[in-house]
Amino acid sequence: MRGIRQHVNPLGLHYSIPRAQPLTRPQHLPADAPVEVELGCADAQFSFQLARHAPDTWVCGLEIREPWVARNLRRVARENIQNLSFGYVNLNVDLDRVFAPRSVDRFHLLFPDPWFKDKHKKRRVVEPSLCRTIIEQLRPGGELHIASDIFEITLEAMAEIEGSEEFSRHFENLAGPWSFWRGNPFAVASRREDTTLRRGQRVWRVRYRVDHGDS
Ligand SMILES: C[S@@+](CC[C@H](N)C(=O)[O-])C[C@H]1O[C@@H](n2cnc3c(N)ncnc32)[C@H](O)[C@@H]1O
Per-domain residue ranges for the chain? Predict the structure, then answer.
């Protein structure tokens, strides 16, 4: 998209200071309305479609590239969509500031960037602090949905979750241990998913149900 940088460095100083803001639930939605969040939404095709498909759900798109946040907010206003919000986040720094504990029904992490490489570091998209925040912010029985066109990314996310004593207790793979979910169970798709399928490539998808272990 013209005018928006392809990538930013989430490890850069500018993005390492926590500054994400809590999102405010639209007033017309009840406190127990379902909440679905797209993490790293870019143009948010998935979130726009989901908000239209499920008008009683509060849909939120979060993104590190602020020009996308601004552009999506302008589109929400233009199209007068009442149940869709957008905000800035650096997933590896300040997602914990955006939602209250146990308030989110589903996180969608769709086609996350592979990892940012600089001279010294590689960083996984799904890493322990993000897993902890997701567990904390999901409601009991809530879901983490991850999809990617890159097998290794999905496998690394699975390894982070299912290969870890800490996280495997809290996440149940809905397709069975170490298994991919076949097909898209949602009525909507992100832009990157459309592109992947158009190219005849496979989408690698996993779905996890959270268990806080206290019921
Ligand atoms: C490949 S795009 C996918 C966009 C969309 N979800 C889709 O499926 O079409 C990945 C997005 O994640 C965002 N992103 C990468 N690292 C991030 C981070 N640490 N925090 C928040 N967003 C991030 C990127 O800026 C980019 O917009």
Answer: 33-210
Q: How far is the CA of 215 from the centre of ligand 1 (A)?
A: 34
Question: Do residues 88 and 12 make contact, with C-beta atoms less than 8 angstroms apart?
Answer: no
Give the alpha-carbon dihedral of 75, 79, 85, 88, to 10 degrees: 0
Q: Considering only the top CATH level, what class is 33-210?
A: alpha beta
The reported pTM is 0.95
Catalytic residues: 113
The residue whose two tokens read 């993005």 is 15
Tokens 């500018």 appear where?
Answer: 14
Give the chain's residues under pLDDT 70: 1-2, 115-123, 215
How buried is residue 56: exposed, middle or buried, by Cβ count under 10 Å (0-12/13-18/19+)? exposed
Ligand 1 atom at shortest distance from the alpha carbon of 68: 27
Q: Write the pLDDT tens digit of every residue in 146-169.
A: 999 999 999 999 999 999 999 999
